[in-house]
Each structure stands twice: as C-alpha cells, then as structure tokens.
Specification:
The chain is built from 16 helices and 13 strands. It is of the alpha/beta class. It has 3 domains: 154 residues, GTPase HflX, N-terminal domain (Rossmann fold), CATH 3.40.50; 166 residues, 3-Layer(aba) Sandwich (Rossmann fold), CATH 3.40.50.300; 52 residues, Alpha-Beta Plaits (2-Layer Sandwich), CATH 3.30.70. The strands form 3 sheets. It has a 6-stranded mixed beta sheet, sandwiched between helices. The chain has a 4-stranded parallel beta sheet with strand order 2-1-3-4, sandwiched between helices. The chain binds guanosine-5'-triphosphate (GTP) and magnesium ion.
Amino acid sequence: MPEDKEVAIIVGLQLSESGYMEVDESLLELKALAHTAGAMVVCEVVQSRKRPDVATYIGRGKLEEIRELLHLHGAGLVIFDDELSAAQLRNLEEALGAKVIDRTQLILDIFAQRATTREAKLQVDLAQLEYLLPRLAGRGTALSRLGGGIGTRGPGETKLETDRRRIRRRIANLRGEIEEIRSQRNLQRHARHKHAIPVVALVGYTNAGKSTLLNQLTGAGVWVEDQLFATLDPTIRRSEIPPSGQPVLFVDTVGFIRKLPHTLVAAFRATLEEVMEADILVHVVDATAYNMESQMTAVFEVLEELGCGGRPSITVFNKVDDLSRRAAVSRLLAETPNSVAISALTGAGMDGFFALLEQKLGEGLIYKNYEIPYEHAGIIALMREVGQVVEEKYTDTGIRLEAGLPVSSAERWAEFQAPS
Ligand SMILES: Nc1nc2c(ncn2[C@@H]2O[C@H](COP(=O)(O)OP(=O)(O)OP(=O)(O)O)[C@@H](O)[C@H]2O)c(=O)[nH]1
Ligand SMILES: [Mg+2]
C-alpha cells in the first residue's frame, strides 16, 4: 500500500426503496473522486433511511459499524456522499475518532490540487472559504488534532479557523481580485467580439472528452487525462469549419459533476462566462459511461443554474470508437434533436459534427439591412467572414446591403442598421 495514500471509507444514504441504483452510481463516482484526490477507498457503507439524521447523518448502529471498519482497515478518513452541516461534521468526527469530510470538501480539495493559474486558485480559495465560514464553530480543534491531508488543503484552515471576521475580509478581498481578473477578461472578450467570430463552448460532464475534442478540432495540445477535473481553466482556440472555412472560436472549460458544490459554481462564474456568452453550446457526452443519462441531466442542471439552459446546442455522443454501448447510442441519437455521434480520439464522425455545427450557426443568423459609410467599408469583409452578405448597392452615402449575422455581430453593428 503506497504510504502517501490516505485510507478511506465512503458512506452514502439510500433515501428511497428504488434509490439503490442512484446510490451505487453516486458512490462509484465518490470513489473515483477520492482516488483522484489521492485516497484509497477500502470499503463503502450504505444505509437506507427516509432522511439523513440531523445530528449524525447516519444512525447510531451504522456509526458503530463504521468505527469497527475503521479499526479493521486501519483507515483514518471517512468521506460522506452529501454535504454535511457543521453539527454533523463535529458529531461525526467525535463519534468516529477519524477525519470526516463530505463530497463537497472532496471536490474542493481536487480543485485546490489542480488549480494552477492565479484565477483558478483565487476561485478555489473563495469557494473553500465560503464552504468553511458557516462550519467554523467548534471544528478547529478536531481538525488540527487529526492533521492535514485531503479536505484540509487550500487556504490553511487551521490558521484561520477562529477568526470569522478575518475570513469574511479575505472573502471580500478574493471577490475583488476575481472581479479585477474578470474585467480584464471582459476586455479580451470584447476585443474578440470586434472580430465577431462566433463562439462555440464545449460543455459536459467531467471526463466526457471535451479537451480531446478541442485538440481534435484545433490541434490545441490541451492536457487530456483519464481523471476527473483535468481542466480548470478555459482554453480558447480559433479554428475553421471545413469545408466552408467558417471561422469559429472553440472554448474548452471545466467539467461538471453531479452535486457540484454551489460555492464552486458561484466562484467559477468568471471562468464560466465564456460558456455563458457562447453562441452555441456543444454538449459532449461520454457515450460509454454506464450512467450517461444521469450525467446528461446533471449537465442540464448546472447549465440551468448558470442561466444558459435555453441556449442553442448540439449534443455530441463521444467515444463511439468504444462500441460496447452502440444500442444505447443509436436510441439516444434518434431521441435527441441536433445530436451526432463521434470519436474525439480517432476523429470518426467529425464530418457530421461539422455539418451540424454549420447548420446551427446558420440558423442563428439574423437578417437585417445595413448602410455602411464608405470610410467603414472594411466591416463588410468582417460581415462576410462571420455571416452572409446578400446584396450590395453602392449609393451616395455608403454601401447598402442585406446581411445575415450571428446575434453578437448584429448587435455590434446595430448602429449601421438601415430602415428596411
Ligand atoms: N476511447 C475514447 N476515449 C476518449 C475519447 N475522447 C476522450 N477520451 C478519453 O477520455 C478521457 C477524458 O478525456 P478529456 O478530454 O480529458 O475529458 P474532459 O471532458 O476534458 O475532462 P475534464 O477536463 O476532466 O472535465 C481521456 O482518457 C481521453 O483519452 C474518444 O473519443 N474515445
Ligand atoms: Mg478537459
């Protein structure tokens, strides 16, 4: 057993009789998360009950069972599958004599390990402090007694724990710093809008293959890994859709997961703005995932939370080079409008993807009449690049034309719109 791995037990609740599949899925994923964070899961414990115990999440009998299991496996960490309250955390740590963390802390911990850029680090710090603040009471002693490791990385919990005011101040500072980065990002985005190239955001469950697809599309050389949350920072690359050569900006960003902590979604809003303002969303689905459909639902939920639920979108069923789920994929293709099957790894199916993308981009065009003064004639070339210019007439005052443009460009050149 590698020495640096924390030995862990994971615990979940089955809240209804029919909920066993859900618990299985959720715990399997919790195990993967624990593994990603550097823990070794030696066993899982499930309890059936109507609702979580207010004081201890699980019942007395189960607590005793877990105590024994901890002893038996020499484990020092218990990971619960749902977010725990301050009281639950405290009571559980006392009752179990082991370090206790919840799913949220585990995800935050992975983010803290993965964050490399200043922006990502600030955002993770913010999310961790927001999680910590309401849970400070009485936790410090237990945590410092039990030492560091998973769930305690990040902004240095032990030093901060007793001083809520200091934490509040740090939260305010972090927000300020993130806001600063955000406004710089806004500037860059506006500079891009000047060129008015449509933005296509790749969204999806973590590990679905978004970065692989970006690499396939643009040869970007983005980090791809069979790990959860390989990507935290958005990457933007320009590419052209064959065969027309229509230029597009592709955005790859952080993946989503079920029960994604709200503090994280809020903290990553700055990063996710690229997604929130995209012209088209490409929802990348891992078609080999046994729980593909619940992953899709989780993605819809996060998109809803970000306020881009109704955005024009394409669904891409990925990894079809792995054929074990072929039946499920053809059913889903038939049921899902605007969907296509591809392998981002081998490039199979990319032609279908390009055709669909081109079609979607075309549907988004808004046709208006424009009158462009001669000194701004250069705009016409830009319009042609991002949309379609139908008719051009040269008049005394300028060039009159009709152009179909993506929403963002139509807005940008609204001042040149002519009465039709
Ligand atoms: N067989 C197969 N594997 C793929 C395909 N696309 C991606 N993968 C693999 O799936 C794993 C995850 O790929 P990524 O591109 O890192 O996934 P991601 O969606 O960017 O993941 P996060 O950044 O963690 O959210 C890697 O091991 C890839 O090699 C595919 O079309 N076929
Ligand atoms: Mg990625």
